[in-house]
Structure formats: C-alpha cells, structure tokens
Amino acid sequence: MRVAILGGTGAMGTGLAKHLSKKNEVIIGSRDERRAGDAASRIEGAVGMGYEAASRAAELAVFAVPYSAIGEAARLSGALSGKVAVSMVNPLKAEGGLLKFALAEGSAAQELAAALPESKVATAFNHISSLFFERETMVPMDVLVAADARGTYEEVAALVTSIPNLRPLYAGPLSEARTIEMITPLLLNLAKMNKTGSLAMKFATTRDPAR
Ligand SMILES: NC(=O)c1ccc[n+]([C@@H]2O[C@H](COP(=O)([O-])OP(=O)(O)OC[C@H]3O[C@@H](n4cnc5c(N)ncnc54)[C@H](OP(=O)(O)O)[C@@H]3O)[C@@H](O)[C@H]2O)c1
Asked: In which band, very low, low, confident or very high, does the pLDDT at 209 lie, cut at 50, 70 and 90?
C-alpha cells in the first residue's frame, strides 16, 4: 500500500513510518519539503514530500499531527477525496496532576471527518506510545480501529497487520473514536502512577477474531 504519513517528521509519524516501510511504500509528509526529505532519508525506501503532494500520491493517509492541526486538514480534502484518512490524534489536557481528555463533545477523528467530507475517515494507533516503535520488533498489542464503513476498517486492518505483532480490532463506527481517544490519558496516567514505562493494550481472547 502507498501510505502518506502526514506529520511523519514527529516521534509518532517517524516511528510508524519505520515499521510500515518494511511492507508498504511510505511517503513522509511535512509542512516543509526539506524536513520531509531529511526524515525520509533515514527510513529505507521512504520518500519525503509536502502535505499536498504526499496526499495526492498516497492511496491512504495517516494524520500523525497535533490536535491543533486537524482543522487545517480541510485544504487536503481534494487530494484525499475517496481515500482512507486515519487519525491517531488524542486531544489531551493536564488537570490536577493528571492527563484528561480535552474535548467536551465529539473526537479529533470526527473533526477530521468534518474537514474531509469526501474521505473515508478512521481512527487507529491512538494507544501506541512512540517509544514502542523504537524497538526493531513490536511488542504484541491490539489496535482499536473505528470507522463508519466496515470496508474502511478492512483497509486500515490490512495496514495494521502489515506490522508484525499488531492485531486490529473493529471498535464500531467513527462515533466510537471519542471512547478510543479517552483511553489514552488513562494509559498515560496508569504508566506514570505505577512507574511501568509505556503501556499498550493486549486483550485476552478465547479465539482470534476474524478480520
Ligand atoms: N507521541 C506519542 O507517543 C503518541 C502516541 C499515540 C498518539 N499520538 C498522537 O499522534 C499525534 C502526533 O504525535 P507526536 O508526538 O508525533 O506529535 P508532534 O511531534 O508534536 O508532531 C508531529 C508532526 O506534526 C507536524 N505539525 C506540528 N504542528 C503542525 C501544524 N500546526 N499543522 C500541521 N502539522 C503540524 C510537525 O511536522 P512538520 O513540522 O514537519 O510539518 C510534527 O513533526 C498527536 O496527535 C498525538 O496525540 C502520539
């Protein structure tokens, strides 16, 4: 699959790109083409482009950008029309010594869907700390994926399973993104208060779910 990682110069984007590049064609997207090229040069087979060119060239785009950048995605709506766009964005705020979910209603993924009305928007990868991507091989973990159409889930699930040890689980329509995004501050607070290092989720199952 030809995948654009928008914000691919950041911790999360670079880490995901490194693992995806083993089985996919990766395009690192940045607001600055030179930064994109620099980041891509450190990942075998990857190329770097600006956001618009990366979105046009890709079959699927992953938004590895801060929450504050979601509104700006609207200018990519033409380039991403008809394509799957994946949010991994977690809107967080600090309150009373804890991290909390920052939105009174909705989710970052639903805001991305509003900015990209002609794209098939999903949320995924929200709970993987970038620190896990620093290892050569991923620790076994589950990746919750929400998307309105099951077909969109299938496309994202194929991307997820292209990284060994990641298991995609369908979480339902995009309205479930709010619940998914809310889990991240819980994991971060658990890790901090219990001094565990980064936590990831792996559910016990009585059988392997069908994709
Ligand atoms: N870090 C984690 O462990 C982790 C885990 C799970 C999910 N997430 C989520 O993944 C996303 C990325 O996290 P990160 O830690 O990698 O973030 P980051 O380093 O702060 O940002 C990633 C990239 O986004 C681009 N960017 C920054 N501001 C932008 C703006 N206003 N408009 C467009 N692009 C902008 C930058 O690339 P250029 O300057 O090159 O354009 C930057 O390198 C966040 O939404 C976060 O909630 C993070």
From this structure: confident
Pocket flag, ligand 1, residue 108 (CB < 6 Å): no
Q: Give the distance (Å) from ligand 1 centre to CA of residue 187.
A: 19
Within 10 A of 103 (CB to CB), how many other CB atoms are there?
Answer: 16
The response to whether residue 56 sits with its C-beta less than 6 Å from ligand 1 reads no
Domains, the chain, in order of start with CATH, read: 2-194 (3.40.50.720)
Q: Which atom of ligand 1 is nearest the CA belonging to 63?
A: 11
Contact 181, 92 (CB under 8 A): no
Which amino acid does the sequence have at 25? E
- For 44, other C-beta atoms within 10 Å of its C-beta total 10
CA-130 nearest atom, ligand 1:
3
- Taking alpha carbons only, the member of 111, 63, 54, 57 closest to residue 85 is 63
- Integer Cα distance of 209 and 211 in angstroms: 6
Task: Note if the pTM is more than 0.70.
Answer: yes
Whole-number Å distance between alpha carbons of 73 and 111: 10
Task: Quote the ligand 1 centre to 18 CA distance (angstroms).
Answer: 16
Do strands 98-101 and 92-95 pair parallel, antiparallel, or not at all (unpaired)? antiparallel
